[in-house]
């Protein structure tokens, strides 16, 4: 066959094959591709209509050794589909954090016959049930399985923190304030309990509480345990306040006359600040324990508070924990009575929006510190030292150069969605809307005092904004505009611009104007505050010097390394253990001595570190000393900071 013919045939064949490919490609391009599967219908939105009937709820708390709570619930129903919700979004946590995975053994029956349930395909906190004809009630039985390891949960064989949101399901489609519950609780023998709920009757270890709404029930947790003392902090019959203390051991319940006076002063000073109350009686539910985890969670007529066992018995060691009770008590006004409009939700499965947490939590944190000082729980000097530490930490934390404070208010939601623990908190930023807001509200307080020549203060804002509707328990919501309007009513100023710069924009400058306007300035030196020498600290921070913190002694874990610090630049990471300092075994005292020696000499600080099975030696060429932060008085400026921390007469 002629060669030319072969080439022609090959050309024709190639063109034909190419045409097929082009045609196939064109056909492929015309294919619509995969399409999304239809989503299940959404959960019915809640409406402000009463749910017919009262839901009975019985919780058996007697199996505390295994940390198992047995639940029986009876829900009035009508035939047809009903969706039952396990509470998801919890006030105070500001996140979808209720652990539905800890609920187990769910069995639903009607008239003695078992009825199947189906979990919603998208919403893991929702359960679909078809109620058969003729049925008027559903009986539910399940268990809540609390963590069993020490410090991981809030139940031990001597104490239990019962949060009702863990032990109930409720019907979708209704405001929580329109669903009635009749709660009942069975306790272990000889246990005592405390709660803001009112008791209807008690027969031995079975307690029946008055019928109440779902939102009030979830807002009224219960503490129970073997070792219990109720301390009366009331200022009179019109302001009943109690400190309900539960402890690991009876001797840990001891409280001195001086300590009692400080806690009574807290109630007095809070009333002088807010000049109102929004509870029938208020209960500090307070656990002192080394076997269950600590806690601080606000409620309208109570608070869940927990700290270490020696709170009373080693008073000098607890400086860092003294603002816990003032903080949570303040929430009865700020957060519970008055609440950001987008943080109030009609039930516990509607998402919350957190952008005003710098008011809800931040302003509360500020007043928690102020009330701690005014009551005597902290001295003014200790409070100033704690504020100085906050400012110093931000001075060495560059996360403020890229992330605004308001974006940190998303932290509770972000971390609740399976986020791992942060490795570089000083760069990533954590829940900074707490401590940084202390500085911002101090700035606002001192600015009001400065502009008004001492005639007005943030106390006037507290009375105006939170002192309304005395005796009412109905939540009043607010927006940023409401905050700005109220501040302008106290003292005219560009408050919108004030918060815009400090909260809503990226602002690298640490907000320390409150110090200078208050008559103080930040200084650093090698002098450790006297109270810090007695403090019971589980870790020691060298953030302002070497740039890391360490937990424990004799091979201490590096708990944090500050971004761009000397430790960071030397390659230290938070997964290391500190073994040695300048060829000596590590102790906190040895490391402090090495820092002081390097301040006087030129030699670097030599650290022996361990990461898994590898030993690493680093040399820190640092000579700046320990750098403890302090606030130093500037006599040329009025001592407004002293006025803020002084008791109100």
Description of the molecule:
Helix content is 29%, strand content 26%. The strands form seven sheets. Strands 1, 2, 4, 5, 8, 11, 13, 14 and 15 form a nine-stranded mixed beta sheet that branches. Strands 25, 26, 27, 28, 29, 30 and 31 form a seven-stranded antiparallel beta sheet that branches. α6 packs across α11 (435-451) and α7 (380-395) crosses α11 (435-451). It is built from 19 helices and 32 strands. β26 (548-551) and β27 (556-561) form a beta hairpin. With 649 residues, it is α+β, with helices and mostly antiparallel strands. It is globular, with a radius of gyration of 30 Å. Among the domains are: 53-193, Immunoglobulin-like (Sandwich), CATH 2.60.40.3650; 342-519, Neutral Protease Domain 2 (Neutral Protease, domain 2), CATH 1.10.390.10; 545-626, Pdz3 Domain (Roll), CATH 2.30.42.10.
């Amino acid at each position: 066959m002629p060669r030319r013919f072969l080439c022609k045939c090959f050309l024709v064949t190639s063109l034909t094959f190419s045409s097929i490919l082009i045609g196939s490609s064109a056909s492929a391009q015309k294919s619509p591709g995969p399409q999304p599967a239809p989503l299940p219908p959404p959960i019915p939105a809640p409406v402000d209509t009463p749910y017919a009937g009262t839901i009975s709820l019985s919780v058996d708390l007697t199996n505390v050794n295994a940390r198992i709570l047995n639940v029986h619930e009876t829900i009035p129903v009508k035939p047809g589909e009903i969706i039952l919700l396990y509470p998801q979004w919890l006030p105070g946590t500001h996140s979808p954090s209720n652990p539905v995975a800890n609920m187990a053994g769910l069995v639903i029956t009607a008239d003695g016959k078992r009825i199947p349930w189906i979990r919603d395909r998208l919403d893991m906190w929702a359960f679909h049930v078809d109620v058969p004809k003729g049925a008027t009630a559903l009986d539910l039985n399940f268990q809540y399985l609390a963590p069993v390891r020490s410090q991981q949960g809030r139940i031990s064989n001597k104490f239990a923190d019962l949060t009702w949101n863990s032990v109930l399901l409720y019907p979708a489609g209704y405001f929580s304030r329109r669903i009635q519950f009749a709660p009942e609780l069975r306790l272990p023998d000889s246990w005592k309990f405390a709660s803001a709920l009112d008791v209807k009757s008690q027969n031995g270890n079975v307690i029946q509480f008055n019928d109440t709404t779902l939102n009030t029930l979830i807002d009224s947790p219960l503490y129970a345990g073997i070792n219990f003392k109720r301390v009366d902090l009331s200022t009179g019959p019109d302001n009943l306040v109690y400190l309900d203390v539960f402890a690991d051991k009876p001797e840990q319940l001891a409280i001195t006359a001086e300590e009692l006076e400080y806690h009574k002063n807290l109630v007095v000073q809070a009333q002088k600040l807010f000049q109102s109350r929004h509870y029938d009686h208020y209960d500090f539910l307070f656990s002192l324990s080394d076997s269950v985890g600590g806690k601080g969670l606000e409620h309208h007529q109570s608070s869940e508070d927990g700290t270490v066992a020696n709170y009373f018995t080693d008073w000098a060691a607890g400086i860092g924990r003294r603002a816990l009770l003032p903080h949570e008590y303040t929430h009865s006004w700020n957060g519970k009575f008055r609440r950001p409009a987008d943080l109030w939700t009609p039930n516990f499965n509607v998402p919350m929006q957190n952008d005003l947490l710098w008011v809800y939590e931040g302003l509360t944190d500020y007043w928690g510190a102020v009330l701690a000082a005014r009551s005597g729980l902290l001295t003014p000097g200790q409070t100033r030292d704690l504020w100085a530490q906050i400012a110093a930490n931000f001075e060495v934390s560059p996360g403020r150069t890229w992330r605004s404070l308001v974006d940190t208010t998303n932290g509770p939601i972000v971390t609740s969605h399976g986020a791992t623990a942060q490795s570089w908190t000083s760069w990533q930023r954590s829940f900074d809307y707490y401590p940084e807001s202390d500085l911002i509200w101090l700035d606002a307080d001192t600015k009001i005092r400065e502009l008004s020549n001492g005639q007005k203060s943030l106390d006037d804002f507290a009375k105006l904004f939170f002192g309304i509707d005395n005796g009412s328990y109905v939540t009043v919501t607010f927006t940023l505009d409401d905050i700005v309007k109220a501040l302008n009513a106290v003292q005219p100023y560009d408050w919108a611009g004030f918060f815009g710069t400090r909260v809503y924009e990226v602002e690298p400058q640490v907000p320390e104007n409150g110090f200078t306007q208050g008559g103080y300035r930040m200084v650093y030196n090698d002098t450790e505050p006297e109270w810090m020498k007695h403090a019971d600290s589980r870790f020691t921070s060298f953030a302002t010097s070497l740039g890391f913190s360490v937990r424990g002694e004799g091979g201490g874990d590096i708990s944090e390394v500050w971004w761009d610090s000397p430790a960071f630049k030397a390659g230290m990471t938070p997964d290391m253990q500190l073994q040695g300092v300048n060829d000596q075994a590590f102790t906190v005292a040895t490391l402090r001595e090495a820092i002081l020696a390097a301040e006087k000499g030129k030699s670097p600080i030599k650290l022996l570190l361990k990461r898994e099975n590898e030993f690493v030696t680093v040399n820190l060429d640092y000579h700046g000393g320990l750098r403890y932060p302090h606030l130093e008085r500037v006599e040329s400026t009025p001592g407004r900071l002293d006025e803020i921390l002084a008791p109100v007469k």
